[in-house]
Amino acid sequence: MTSRIIHHPVLDKVDETDIVSFKFNDTVLTGLRNESLAAALLANNIRTLRVHEESGTPRGIYCNIGHCFECRVNVNGQQGVRACLTPVEEGMTVSSGEKFLTSVKDWRSNNE
Amino acid sequence: MNRVIVIGAGPAGLSAAITIAENGYEVLILDEYMLAGGRLLGQLYEEENGKWWNGIKESKSLHDKAVALGIEIRLGTPVSNIEKLDGSWVIYTDEETYYTSHLLLATGAAEVPLSIPGWTLPGVMSVGAAQVMTNVHRVKPGNRGVIIGVNVLSSAIAMELKLADIDVAAITLPKMNQVTKESGNPMDVMNSLLHVSHMAPSAFVKFGSKLMKNEFMKKMGITFFPKKGVKMWDIPIMLRKAVINIYGKDAVEGVTIATISASGEVIEGTEETISADFVCIAGGLYPLAELAAIAGCPFYYIEELGGYVPLHNERMETVLDGLYVAGNITGVEGAKVAISQGVAAGLAIANSFSGGKHEVVIQEAIQTIGRTRDEAFIQFHPDVKEGKEKLQRYFEEYGQEVKVGVTG
Amino acid sequence: MSENKMIICRCEEVTYGELKNTAETYNCSARELKLRTRAGMGYCGGRTCRSMVDSIAHASVERDVTQVTLKYQPPIRPVSFGSLGGVTK
C-alpha cells in the first residue's frame, strides 16, 4: 500500500481536509483538491492506469512530468489525457485506455 | 513592440521573465505542467550552511515575484509546434496560437532511461517521477524501492526518499548492454563518482553526515568493492551488482540482481531477488530541445552538456533571429545556473528592445553564470565547463562560416 | 525475461533484440533504425527512448555530432484532428 506523506521533517504539513471525489473505471475514489490525477490514483493504491493498445500489458506513471505519455487516460470523455499533468476535480470521470480489438502490429508483420 | 513569450515556467523561464518585466517589457509564460517551477519543484537538499534548498519554496518565490510584476503565466498549456512566419515567431497550443518577435525556450531536460527487462510494469518509474511524487505531491511512490543507476541525481533523490520515510532497499547498476553502457560498468561508475568527490564542494561530500561520507569515499576508492555494497544514509550502494530483471504480475513485486565483474559482466549463478513495490530508473538527464530543433536551430552533440544542444552564445541567443534559450535546454546543470542563465537571456531580450542599452549588465550577467557554475553544489557532469567552451567555439566557427557564405 | 525481449520503445513495444538485429543487418543510421522498427514513432514522439535507439545505432555507425541524429518533427505533442482543423468539439 502506498500512502500520503502528511508530515515531513523539512517540508510543510499537507492539508488533507480539502477532498474531492472522482470516478476511475466506475469506482468512486477521493483525492485532494489540486493534486494531479496520477497522485490521487497512486494514493488510492492504483498503479495501472491503462493497458498498451496492442499487447494489453499494464502501464502506469513513468516520468510523472508529461514527457512520456504512459499515464494517459480518458477524462470526461476526452482521450489521451496525461494523468500526471491534470489536476483532479470534483466529479471527474476517468477511465483507462483499452486494448485494440485488432493488432496493427500483427497486420504489419503479416503484410510486409 | 510586442509581448515576449517564454516557454517553460522552470527556474530559467521564470527568472528570464522577471528580468524582462523588471526592464519594463511585457511577458507571457507558457508551461504544460500544473504548477510553476519545473524540475526545481522537486529539489530538496541541505546546503553547506545547513540551510535547506527547498524547491517548492524557491519555485513559489519566483512565481510570486513574476505575478507581482504583472507577468501572465498560463499553466496546463502544452506547445505543440513553433515556426517563423513573416518575421514573427508563431507558437501553437491546443487552445490558442500566439505571436511574438522574441521567444525564449526554457524547456529544461528530460530523463534518460535505462532499459531493464520488465521495466514497463506499473511501479517502475523514472527517478525524477519518484522525486515529484514524494516531494511535490507527497504520495509515496511505494513502500520499498530499488534505484537502478548510481549517479549524483539518483543519490540525491535516494536521500529525499529516505527523508520521507520510504525504504530504499538498494541503489545498484543496470545490467550492461548497448543502451546502458557506462551506467552498467562498475569501473566507469566508480570513476565518475570519484571524480565528483574531488570537486569542492562535492555532492557526495555534502550529503549525509561527515563520518559517513569519509567512510563512504574511503570504501569507494578501493578496487574490490564489497559485494553487499557500502551504505550511504543506510542505503546499500551496490556497484558490483546489476539488476537483470524486474518481476511482477501486474505491478512490480521485486527485482532480480546478480553479481557482476569489475567490467560489468554478469557472473552466472549469483542471481538473487530483492522484493520491492517500486523501482526507479536513473539514467541521468538530457537537454529537452525539441522546439529549438523544429524551429531550425543548428545542433551539436556535447557529451559534457548531456547530449545535443542548440547552438547559442553566452548571451543565450541562438543563431535564429529573436530565438533565445536558457536553462537545461543549453546543457544539464543545477537550478541556480538556470536562474542565472534566465537573467542573461532576459537582459539580452531587453537589450534587443532598447537598442543596446543593456550591454554592461549583460556582461555582468554572463560573469554571474560562470561564478554560479563554479560554486554549484551539484554538478551533473564534471567537465561542464569544457562543454560550454566547446559550444562557444562551435558558435564562433558557425559565425565565421556564415560570414564567408555572405561575402563569398 | 531475456534481454532480447526487453522493450526499448515503450510506446510501440519495440524490443532490444529487434533493434540490435536491424542495426546489425542494415548497418544503418539512427534515423533508418527508427523508420525500420518504428522505435520512437509512437505516442511520446521518441522523447523516452531516443537516447537508447541512438546508442544502438551508434554501436556500429559513428555519431554525427553536428546534427540531431533522430530528427524532431512537429507536432511535438499529440494534437487532435479537431484542433488541427480549428474545429472545436
From TrEMBL, chain A:
- InterPro entries named among the record's database cross-references: 2Fe-2S-bd_N, 2Fe-2S_ferredoxin-like_sf
Supply the alphabetized keyword list. Oxidoreductase
Among Gene3D superfamilies, the record links this protein to: 2Fe-2S iron-sulphur cluster binding domain, sarcosine oxidase, alpha subunit, N-terminal domain
In Swiss-Prot or TrEMBL terms, this protein is called (2Fe-2S)-binding protein
TrEMBL record, chain B:
Keywords assigned by UniProt, alphabetized: Oxidoreductase
Q: Which residues cross the membrane?
A: none
Q: Which residues form the FAD/NAD(P)-binding domain?
A: 3-342
Gene3D superfamilies the UniProt entry points to: FAD/NAD(P)-binding domain
Q: What is this protein called?
A: FAD-dependent oxidoreductase
Organism annotation: Sporosarcina aquimarina
